[in-house]
Amino acid sequence: MLTKYRDASTGLVLQMGQMADFGQSERERARQLLDLVFAGRMSDADWELGLCGLHVLAWTDDLLVGHASLIQGRLLYRGTALRTGYVDAVAVHPEHQRRGIGGSMMDALEEVIVSAFELGALGASDAGAEFYRKRSWREWRGPPSELTPLEGGRAPERGAAVFVFPGTRVLDADPGTKQQGSLSLPASRPFEQERHDSVDPLRPPTRRGHWPSGSA
Q: What structural domains does the chain harbor?
């Protein structure tokens, strides 16, 4: 189901739903935005992989200025497979950056992570890493060789740092510092709607993930 609300802090109109819930025009404009922001690095395979997730579109009037998605994945931590929401394809129009658009979209996706997943994960470039650190995301400390996608899946881009975010499970240590783990993403799997039914996207997100004291 496609939902919509206005972010009081930025004035943006945010839409959230599976890509099939959006109209053809909205899907085409989302792809065009990603092609613009990622300068052609968003392949057809990348786009197809992202279609199975939950998407947030940010609008200023009738101009699409932001896109972000959440894909269901799996993070292996201390031998336990954790249900993980992988944040992907976060893009803000070049002429509208540094106006809180990325933060508004992340607010929406982090609300879903906190309510429906045990953990959040994403890959960040050096330029974007500080943005996520300020939002309480933590860099994955496990060996890079342990970050492996499922067959047909997509690993973080070369050189990208992997960050994790607490969802329904609060980890008792900085993830990966003392334990090895691996990140796995699905090639194509519908987002499980029932796992975020407790989230009301018609209101601004309010809850935040948290780490236990002393684990910083």
A: 3-190 (3.40.630.30)
